[in-house]
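Checklist before submission:
- one chain only
- standard amino acids only
- sequence pasted in full

Submission:
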Amino acid sequence: MSADRNNKATRAHDMGCVSRRQRAKREAQRQMVMALPRPRDEDDRLLLRILMMMTREPRPKPVPPKHQRERCGAKCRDGHACRAPVFKRPDGSLARRCRMHGGASTGPKTEEGKRRALEALHAGLLRRWEKYRLAGRRTGS
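Returned file contents:
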């Protein structure tokens, strides 16, 4: 490691544009390295580099921009294959179909999920009826 490893400007430059969690993790790694004795020879430097490589998380595979992604390929109603790009899931992986052909949610599967969905429906209907009541309109039935 260089002599300016405590320099705040160098540390700020190294941090770049990262999240707080990543910043905290890097700072913990830096503190761990600071606690180690200074490398005296090439073997110590090599061991230090191996240690840093072992504690580093692998980078996620970058997702290509939309114009470079695979195409959906689902059969449209007029017979041609869909040419829309596949969509990116919240976890960062790519789906196999576009947003139109990915398939809708089939609803909650567990009893607890079904209960929450029913409660949300009931609460929404109550809000709607209250809004109509305050506006002086009929509620329908």
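Reviewer check: The chain has three domains: 8-55, 65-103, 110-141.
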